[in-house]
Amino acid sequence: MISLVIPCYNEERYLPCLLDSVDVARRRYEAQGGQLEVLVADNQSADGTARVAAERGCRVVRVEPRNIGAVRNGGARTARGELMAWVDADHRIHPDTFVVVDTLMRNPAIVGGSSGAWLERWSLGLALTYATILPFVWLTGFDTGVVFCRRTDFEGVGGYDERYRVAEDVMFLLALRRLGKRHGQRLVRARRIKVIASTRKFDEHGDWHYFGFLLRAPMLLLGPAKMDELAERYWYRPGR
């Protein structure tokens, strides 16, 4: 069984499109004998997120702390699958997602991985932003999209590090890679099953805003308070 965890905060608008894509991938996986459970980790949503999830057959897990690592962990710790996967609510997954994840994780030389993402629309600003991020992905092997691993390895690294309100996904993959190296395993990028990612941050802040974000990044060197200030404005704003 694969357990798919979807962290959510006020995702009533986006969640149905993701779940539509999950249903297609589920049917393809179940046709090959697999099983899937979908958990929506609801982080104090004030809209109809929990209702939509329940109506679509998801198991809803209420998570109180406003911390994305805690939300990812909260869903995962109630999961029943041998394999774990996470995806954001504003993505749409590839129809072969669960088939490919299952196949990869049958290989004992692989500790886990990620799918990567395509954007739902493109512009010059978006293309240059994408190109700016690619060298980091190539150098580290850390990508976004659907992240997956075995339950035992999720527990082995202690889950997502809840000290980080941002970049918790990078730190999780770093921990997985370190664990894998001790056992002769590697991380993989399952690029055939890239998600389609929402550009809502760019719709809100502008197609070139990422470069302004990079200019503000040195603020993070001033300590946790500045990091929290940036996180509040960009990721944790109430009611978004």
Give the radius of gyration: 17 Å
How is the largest sheet built, in terms of strand order? 3-2-1-4-8-6-9
H/E topology pattern: EHEHEHEEHEEHEHHEEHHH
Name the quaternary structure.
single chain
Gross morphology = globular
How many domains in all?
A: 1
Second CATH tier, the architecture: Alpha-Beta Complex
Number of strands: 10
* Largest beta-sheet details: 7 strands, mixed
Which percent bin holds the helix content?
40-55%
Pick out the low-confidence regions: none
State the distance separating the first and last CA atoms.
Answer: 33 Å
What fraction strand? 15-25%
CATH class: Alpha Beta
According to CATH, the fold-level topology is Spore Coat Polysaccharide Biosynthesis Protein SpsA, Chain A
The number of helical elements comes to 10
